[in-house]
Structures are given as C-alpha cells and as structure tokens.
Amino acid sequence: MKDAKNTTLVFIALCLILCASCASVKRVHLTTLSTKETPTETELVLTTSGPVQVSNAKLDNPPCLIISFPENSVYSSEKEELVFSKGPIKRIKNEYCPAGSKSQRRLNFMLVELTQDMPYEISQDGHSVIIRLEHPVENAAPHPPETEQAVSPSQGEEKKPLVEPGYLIGPEDILNIEVWNHPDISREVAVNHDGEISLPPIKKLGVMGLTASQLEEVLTKALARYLIDPIVFVTVKEYSSQRVTALGEIKTGMYTLRRRTTLVEFLGQIGGTTGNADTYHIRLIKKDGSIFVYDLNDLLANPQKSDGIFVSGGDTVYVPPLEFNKVYVLGEVKNPRIVLVKGKLTVLDAITEAGGETRDAVLRSVMVIRGELGSQQGIRVNVKHLLRKGDISQNIELIPGDIVYVPKTFIVHIERFLRDLAYPLTWYFWYVR
Predict the structure, then answer these.
(1) What is the mean predicted confidence (pLDDT) over 35-42?
(2) Where residue 157 falls among pLDDT bands split at 50, 70, 90?
(3) Could you give the 3-state DSSP secondary structure of residue 206?
(4) Higher pLDDT residue, 73 or 214?
(5) CA 107 to chain centre
(6) What is the model's pLDDT at position 135?
(7) Most CB within 10 Å of its CB: which of 260, 287, 311, 411?
(8) At what angle do helices 2-22 and 423-431 cross, to 10 degrees?
(9) At a CB cut-off of 8 Å and minimum separation 6, what does 319 contact?
(10) What's the pLDDT band for 25 if we cut at 50, 70, 90?
(11) Angstrom distance (rounded) from CA 69 to CA 73
C-alpha cells in the first residue's frame, strides 16, 4: 500500500514537471548594463526585466561600490569581469552563485571598482537602477611641497615582509605624538588622504602602513636632524582607516580593525555567522579585487592554517546563504527532496538524506545529472556495487546543482535518458523551485 502511494506521488510529480516545462515563469533578469557620461557625472544604468530592491556598501581602498539584491533573485549572462574605463569606472566584477548556466546565473553581488573615491547617488526609474558618480572638481593647485618619505629601519638591508603584529596606520587616523621635553613639537595630528602627517619642523612624512612602534623609530631618525637624541612616543587616538565590510549571513556593516586580525578572529569579533550561512564557501574579497574562498570549518580545525589568513583595510567578507548549495534527489527514494550541501556530500549521503531507496529501485543504474541547462551530462553510478562490494569509486562527490535520480528500470541509453527526462527535471528545479 505504501509503495503504491509513493508510486502515485512520483507520477504526479513527473506530470507537474512536464506541465511546468511548458509554462511561462516570471523571473528577474539583468537585461542591459550601460553607462552615460556628462561633463559633471557618469551614470551606470542596470536595467532588469522587473522591479528589484538594491542595497549598497562603499569601500575606500581601493574605492569600490558593492551592489547587492537582498530581496530579489537577479539573473545575468554578463561576464565575471567587465572592463569599462568609462569616467571614474575602472571595471565591474560580477559574483555569481555556483550553479546554473551562463545565461541563467544568479548574482550574489556586483563589485564596481572606481579610479578614485567620489560622491555617488543611487536611484531607480521603473526597471532601471541608476548609479550617479559625480566627477571631481579640478583645481589648479600648486605642486605639493617636497615630501619627506618614511624610511624603514632596515633600509639598506634585504627587504622582508612586516611580521610585527599591530594596527597599520592609514588615512583619517588621529595620532598622538609626544616628543620628550619638547611640548612645542608634541601634538595630535591627523593622517591625510595621501597617508602623510605634518609635524613641524618636518613638513610632510609618509606614515601609511606603519605600526605605532615603527613610526616611533622613523620619527626618531627624522627629528634627529633637528634635535639632540629625541625620544618619541606614538599612540593611535582614533582608528578610522582600517575598515572591513561584512556582507551576507553575518552581522552586516563596516568594522574597524584595531590590530592585525585573522579571518577567523574577525568573524568571531562581529558575532559569527547565522544558522543559514554556507560556512564552507566564505569569500574574502581583497582591496585589489582578488577573491579567495575559504572553508571556515577547515580553518577552525587547523589553527596553524587560519593564523596565516588575515583581513585588512578595504577588504570585504561575504558569507553566502546555505540555500545556494542544493542537490535534488528524485525517483525511487522514500522522500524525494532537496538536500543542502554542507561540506562534502556523496551520492550515498544524498540517497540516505532522502530516506533511502524504495523496494523497486534499481541501484545499479543511479544517474547523476550534472551541467548547464540544455547541455547536461549523465553519470551512471552503481550504488549496488558500492553497498555489496565496497566499491568506493562509485560513491562520487556531488556538487551544487546536481540531480540524483534513482530509476525503477535499468537505464540503457544515457543520451536518451537525458533527452527525455533530465531536461524537464532540470527545467523544473532551476525555474520553479
């Protein structure tokens, strides 16, 4: 009786799939991406097939805008990286979900890299999102005075990367500089946008990227030209430059780093990830635009590895939702369902998650449908050999977007199977679900 009920449910599901393949489904697509220029501003126009909600965040170094769609699923066929060179826009990087064809990829967010920091405004006109970037006002400023560059204590020796932990000084930081027995020189100074300070008798001194202790050594050498055996103390009064953007399934916002901080430490400081977070594919977007993907679970299990992964000013940490990583289990299983990919997921794991096979299942001819819509490939898996003979080569690892189909009869022709059944199955799950 139970098997008859399951067979009826599967038959109804297949009928719905075939009907859905012919149905018209409303989806939001990014149809055009264009720019308009005037003498005073540049407009980046995103036109979609339907109205969307957008949110944005700003990065300072390098200057970037992050555009995301928190309440909408927006699909795009644009390339991963677009070089615009229009006005202040340098390039655009599109971050997509892992599954889907090039014409049906879901956008996580867009990273708009600019040539320099400038005011901007985001508005909407119908189905268009308009990002207006104001051009800087040019002025005939005189050539800046000669700048006295900060000299590393190890100048003349082989250069080595900084290994000293500590906060790295940057623009907009406020420093408290005290020169022993020289109250006329001691003062609070602000680091300008070029990463320089002015401390009479020194006109300008580059301090970008130095720690407080390193700056003490640099200032001691610089002031030794004017004072006898100067003693210098530097503290950071206001931390403003080393800011990191957090997006996705974490407490979103801008956070200021007060010391050298690893990725794991940063996530812990802001409260960790949500229950819906895909902790296996956390993206660290560096300020130069490069993107690195990390498994938080692996980092937590290997402290030595996590100690070498740092976040720095201008970086963005993006934690995607777990729902992006799905595998579909259909056919002769007790509970056909969607299975979330949490780390490594094999064929046997997926079938087990779906309640196991039914009595009519043909385990020696299980199919894994993989690939882009319209050009899938079928991988036959002999689960019977896996269970009876321990052939672990049959227990392949699944990737997001895979469809596991447990048949009722032996599948002889894979090509015919893909043509007759895999296409409507894929259409149903990618377009309806």
Answers:
(1) 80
(2) very low
(3) strand
(4) 214
(5) 11
(6) 75
(7) 311
(8) 80
(9) 247, 248, 249, 250, 273, 274, 277, 278, 279, 282, 283
(10) very low
(11) 7
